[in-house]
Specification:
By secondary structure, the protein is α/β, with parallel strands linked by helices. It has 2 domains: 86 residues, Rossmann fold (3-Layer(aba) Sandwich); 173 residues, NAD(P)-binding Rossmann-like Domain (Rossmann fold, 3-Layer(aba) Sandwich), CATH 3.40.50. The protein has 11 helices and 12 strands. The mean pLDDT is 96.
């Protein structure tokens, strides 16, 4: 008998077609709770939350597959209690996220967002757009995993010095692992790539931001909850933090007060949102599902 598979979020047509070869697929059901009643596999991206209630309503569930890296939209504790596998595609979007990170670093350093808005509004004010070069600057990477290492490689190619904080990583020939306070004190740009845990939630708060270099830049392409947005707002207003570039926020879509500031560059959680990455994610996802 064919396995019952529920694909809850948008997927590329080619990926859906491949998954349909593996079982009886329900694609983007209007009523998720109804659809999962006899599901053996649930496939999600970041939009659908696989809560304990969803899991409880799926008595035949054997696996939850996340097309992407983070699994914080899946109740892993509830899955573990039931012996349900949780799988993801951690390597597929690495380069896409790393490239976006470099773009955001440059955008924040060169005030590209502000320049764009001025041009759109008929303003020509070059004096207000004096930025900084990144060559020779120190990049502090928080979370030195796949993406952090890819960012480090690209940053070094652009002439940046790289240090990193990660309790589970070791220094390599190019990047020195330091404690968080050293990273805060020494970095001209801080780029966040850690997962969200109780230890990293609000890691960047009023106290830690105060330890940063005055005029440093914060880039977050990881999880919004790692940064205390009220503390960041105050630091951007005061000039303690020169600029920020945020692909993620605690609540999405974001409608908060950081939008008032012209020294913040935003993107809408698009780190892995390239054609190339989506095809890689789909390919890796299908392979993982075949192995179940």
């Amino acid at each position: 008998m064919a396995r019952k598979i529920v694909i809850a979020d948008n997927m590329e047509d080619e990926v859906v077609a491949e998954i349909k070869k593996l079982g009886d697929v329900t694609y983007k059901p209007a009523n998720l709770m109804e659809a999962v009643k006899d599901a053996e596999i649930i496939v999600v991206r970041s939009a659908t939350k696989v809560t304990k209630e969803v899991i409880a309503g799926a008595p035949k569930l054997k696996a939850v597959a996340r097309a992407g890296v983070g699994i914080d939209n899946i109740d892993s504790v509830a899955c573990k209690a039931r012996g349900i596998q949780v799988i993801n595609t951690p390597g597929a979007s690495t380069n896409a996220v790393a490239e976006l990170t470099i773009g955001l670093i440059i955008a924040a350093s060169r005030k590209i967002g502000k320049a764009y808005l001025q041009m759109k509004n008929g303003v020509w004010d070059k004096k207000a757009l004096v930025g900084n070069e990144i060559q020779g600057k120190t990049l502090g990477i928080v979370g030195y995993g796949r993406i952090g290492k890819a960012v480090a490689e690209k940053a070094r190619a652009l002439g940046m010095n790289v240090i990193a904080f990660d309790p589970f990583a070791r220094s390599d020939q190019h990047t020195k692992i330091v404690d968080i306070d050293t990273l805060l004190h020494q970095s001209d740009v801080i780029s966040i790539h850690s997962i969200l845990t109780p230890e990293t939630r609000n890691l960047f708060n009023k106290a830690s931001i105060e330890k940063m270099k005055t005029g440093a830049i914060i880039v977050n392409v990881a999880r919004g909850e790692i940064v205390d947005e009220d503390a960041l707002y105050d630091a951007l207003k005061s000039g303690k933090v020169k600029a920020a570039a945020l692909d993620v926020t605690a609540n999405e879509p974001y409608k908060g007060k950081l939008l008032e500031l012209d020294n913040v560059v935003f993107s809408s959680h698009i780190g892995g949102n390239t054609m190339e990455a989506q095809l890689k994610i789909g390919s890796e996802l299908v392979q993982r599902l075949r192995e179940l």
